[in-house]
Amino acid sequence: LKESHGQAMPERLDWRSSYLPLPSYLVTEDKKTQRWGANLQALMYSMMGGLAPVRLPLYTVVFVFDPAEVSDMKTAHQLLAQMPLPMALHFVLLPSAGGGSKPLASWDEVMLGAP
């Protein structure tokens, strides 16, 4: 985030931040992944066209979205439908200010690239 106009949100939200909400999905707590191993050597023998079944959060995904936007809600649903994956998935709800007139945050293209 380049700048934040909200009162309680920090200007930048790092994935290691204490302000980040608890994960909505965590591979180590998913019952579907109980048989997956926790050994990184399984990555050497990954399945064709997919990720190796490793019961470790190899990826941390932070999805910041406006819950009032239908397309954002569909994308959040699609992310959850793809589970189980070796990741921790965090949803950060960031509503637009005044019903969509000015967003509460802006994208920093210098640091993050073009969206």
Report on this structure.
The strands form 2 sheets. Strands 2-4-3 form a 3-stranded mixed sheet, with helices on one face. The model has no long low-confidence stretch (mean pLDDT 77). It has 2 helices and 5 strands, in the order βββαββα. It has helices at residues 70-81, 109-112, and strands at 3-4, 25-26, 59-65, 87-93, 105-106. With 115 residues, it is an alpha+beta fold.
Strand-residue proportion: 15-25%
Order of helices and strands: EEEHEEH
- Using the alpha-carbon principal axes, give the shape: globular
For the termini, the CA-CA separation is 12 Å
Gyration radius, to the nearest Å? 17 Å
Oligomer classification: single chain
Helix content: 10-25%
What count of helical segments does DSSP give? 2
Number of extended strands: 5
Low-confidence spans: none
The main pleated sheet reads as: 3 strands, mixed
Kindly state the mean pLDDT as a whole number? 77
Which class of secondary structure composition applies to the elements? alpha+beta
Sheet with the most strands: spatial strand order:
2-4-3
In short:
With 115 residues, this protein is of the alpha+beta class. The chain is built from two helices and five strands; from the N terminus they run E-E-E-H-E-E-H.
